[in-house]
Design a protein that fits this description.
Elements lengths: L24 H12 L7 H18 L4 E7 L2 E8 L9 H16 L3 E3 L9 H9 L4 E2 L13 E3 L5 H5 L14
Parallel strand pairs: 2-3
Antiparallel strand pairs: 1-2, 3-5, 4-5
Length: about 180
């Protein structure tokens, strides 16, 4: 299932990684490997169960946070994240995103999302926020095997990224190249 572009949001500010809207060879390497490994991938039901369990874990760990995750085209789609207004601007969004990207990294799952102005958010500020966690602009949006959302993040422990000559020696900057 591929949702529309509405009802996606998140909150936070200040870059940890430099912004990048250029093509990313690490994502290209990951995407190529992902397409090759489709036959060994977990079933959609297994992936969906994992995404549901992760969303519940976040809601339990961070009461008042509304998060919706699903599997879309093999990617972990962050469909919705809303923080209580009283807890915005104090690092809660950063902690929630660290939780989500850590879980995705452990599973080797790429993440995708599309920041929007819904719920009063500033899309430019959200783009900067998500870049802090390694998300890049999705230049392959809608192509075969690529995510349909506007931003994508390669898992840190991806074999394709580690083996790619374009990504070797890049360490934690692979997403920001």
């Amino acid at each position: 299932m591929t949702p529309g572009d509405d009802a996606r949001s998140g909150h936070g500010a200040g870059p940890l990684l430099p912004p990048s809207d250029t093509a990313n060879p690490c994502y290209e390497a990951w995407l190529e490997q992902w397409l090759c490994d489709l036959e060994h991938a977990p079933t959609e039901e297994e992936q969906s169960a994992w995404a549901d369990a992760l969303a519940e874990e976040v809601r339990t760990t961070y009461p008042g946070v509304h998060v919706s995750l699903e599997i879309s085209r093999g990617y972990l789609l962050l469909y919705l994240i809303v923080l209580p207004e009283s807890e915005r601007g104090i690092g809660l969004g950063t902690r929630v995103m660290e939780h989500l990207v850590s879980a995705a990294d452990l599973r080797g799952a790429a993440m995708t999302l599309s920041p929007t102005e819904n719920f009063g958010a500033d899309p430019d500020r959200l783009h900067d926020f998500y870049r802090r966690f390694g998300f890049i602009a999705n230049k392959w949006r809608g192509e075969i095997g690529a995510a349909e959302e506007s931003m994508v993040r390669v898992p840190r422990n991806s074999v394709a990224v580690a083996d790619s000559p374009a990504c070797s020696g890049s360490g934690s900057k692979e997403s920001a190249s």
